[in-house]
């Protein structure tokens, strides 16, 4: 099989890292790949902040519910939706940017953040490194913004731990492919059955990994998606200039 396809199909979120540093060359290659990732309108409204300082990584870990792998992994990269630099481009022509106040601007920008994140994951895996994405940096956004020194019109969206794997995570099963791939038109056929089957498959996987009391997948999702998550994000984003409809 093509080695790139094989690498992508074997994605794992690793949370166990050795003390070995990520080389400057490897880190530069990962960031350079991300820099070349596409963005809407060639707007390049994404930036990354690389954190290698151990004390700073410990502070990020505290922001993200104390996840220990953030402090342990030698590199943490925050992917930032960056409409600050595009505002500077508009200022050259005496114009005021408003894209950050629109839902389309948010969707477009966050989509490109995701592309950058995926590119870094693929690049790190290609170099034999382990990764785990971290969304919990949004738990205490004002602290994260201050820690990274982000200017107005910048929003930290997601982070990525990168390091050498100590104990590799098992390959996690997924919902049936039929729930993901839809040819020509969206199909709900077999969805309920697929969810029921996945509840059993994932429960077995987690039990084998030592998580005997883990809830079923559908139960876990129900507990997370039946309320508005991180409501304080709205206020923190507005303070940075992301006032949707404003």
Structure characterization notes:
The chain has 246 residues and is an alpha+beta fold. The chain folds into 2 domains: 3-170, 3-Layer(aba) Sandwich (NADH Oxidase), CATH 3.40.109; 171-226, no CATH class. The protein contains 10 helices and 4 strands. It has helices at residues 3-9, 24-35, 54-63, 68-72, 84-91, 103-126, 141-148, 191-208, 217-225, 232-239; strands spanning 46-51, 75-82, 130-134, 154-163. Helix 2 (24-35) packs antiparallel against helix 6 (103-126) and helix 3 runs antiparallel to helix 7. The longest helix has 24 residues, at 103-126. The mean pLDDT is 96.
**In whole angstroms, how far apart are the ends?**
50 Å
Helix content: 40-55%
Mean pLDDT across every amino acid position: 96
- Strand composition percent: 5-15%
Structural class: alpha+beta
CATH architecture classification of the largest domain: 3-Layer(aba) Sandwich
CATH class of the largest domain: Alpha Beta
Topology:
Layout lengths: L2 H7 L14 H12 L10 E6 L2 H10 L4 H5 L2 E8 L1 H8 L11 H24 L3 E5 L6 H8 L5 E10 L27 H18 L8 H9 L6 H8 L7
Antiparallel strand pairs: 1-2, 2-4, 3-4
Helix pairs in contact: 2-6, 3-7
